[in-house]
């Protein structure tokens, strides 16, 4: 993810937002209902509200966050303001990746939040048990009550550099990833929000690799983790723990790190319906201490700059934010989908001049099954875009305050509140309204859905013919075509 410095215009605007934050704390809500409609609706009324979108965005009179009618937002944490605890510490800067957990008290949510600070920042993460005393990054936790007020806020780990994204474990911890490979940093750390700043939080999981990490997610069926690299070129990795019990402490026992490659599959791994051999995804073992160099030397798949990821319904989603479209100069981005069960990699989305999505970053499957993509670099203003299993596309949110990205999109355990960060100058926001109910069937359907017509990659007749001949999907054949395999 890209750090956006705060310019003079943003600084002047945040001065006004301080008053807004205090006002929101008093009134408890900023309603966007009954405002004039700003954009045409992409909702399909035959699908039911939420299945085709939530209607057009409504212009926010405060010039901060446009949302559909009926949705509300509240700024619950602001960089530079005092944390909600007696420590006297200030909320650290550059909030990024985030996850939500069930709180210990009834109707509370615990947010664990990354801070992408480097070695020097005006608002560092001030921990008592840092891994490296000269580093300003780390993670914090917010305990959010049922009225969406923060009732506690504290440091969970510190002494890191550029904690960008990460991933939630199945046992209630957060894996925070360092997006760097400088000054001996570039590792993954496990954070327990119920036991902050313990020894585990300052112990790098070295077998998960020393490289510029972005995001990671676990396949709950196997206990295998998938990791993206934010660097150029980028590689896709998987980490198979020696202990796949998916319990606290299991990752610290180490494991095997591999990088994805496109190679000929042996007969016993190829499709039963296709004679001989065919090109597919293979995983090549790399040395964790030189993962990037090994991946390059082994001819693994080179992406431009990998960013967000998500695992849901048997599929691992990830995006290449800066991927070039065709042979043109534009780098609008791609979204991929990998199926571990069949070892199949598909190109799900590729930005073209004919569609409106630019620079996909955060990706999330919502509780009701839509794919949400947060932009990072749309010149018209970054948004959260929803894609449905039924093939609809809609806008859910737009940052109209500044040019900073959305980050850390996640939902409370009950699915009624969405949390998101605007990284610079640093806000954590709660959003609520008529969200659709949790729907695991649609989550699974999204994992196997075709992309919306205008968002699907453009596939030539040659690639289509190859896919039909080899018994693979055109989306899988598109991966081979985009990554230099002769078809």
Count of alpha and pi helical runs: 5
- What share of residues are in beta strands? 25-35%
Relative helix content = 10-25%
Mean pLDDT: 87
Give the number of DSSP strands.
27
Q: What value does the Rg take, in angstroms? A: 22 Å
**Alpha-carbon distance between the two ends:** 34 Å
What structural class should be given to the helix and strand makeup? mainly beta
In spatial order, strands of the major sheet run 2-3-24-23-22-21
How would you describe the shape?
A: globular
Largest pleated sheet? 6 strands, antiparallel
Poorly predicted runs are 2-49, 270-276
Name the descriptors.
487 residues, mainly beta, six-stranded antiparallel beta sheet, five-stranded antiparallel beta sheet, 5 helices, 27 strands, disordered N terminus
Question: What topology emerges from the helices and strands here?
Answer:
Blueprint: H1 8-27, E1 30-31, E2 57-58, E3 65-68, E4 72-78, E5 95-102, E6 109-115, E7 137-144, E8 150-160, E9 163-168, E10 174-178, E11 188-191, E12 213-219, E13 224-229, E14 236-241, E15 255-265, E16 278-285, H2 291-297, E17 306-312, E18 315-320, E19 334-339, E20 344-350, E21 360-365, E22 371-375, E23 383-387, E24 393-399, E25 406-411, E26 417-422, E27 427-432, H3 440-448, H4 461-470, H5 474-482
Antiparallel strand pairs: 1-4, 2-3, 3-24, 4-27, 5-6, 6-7, 7-8, 9-10, 10-11, 12-13, 13-14, 14-15, 15-16, 17-18, 18-19, 19-20, 21-22, 22-23, 23-24, 25-26, 26-27
Helix pairs in contact: 4-5
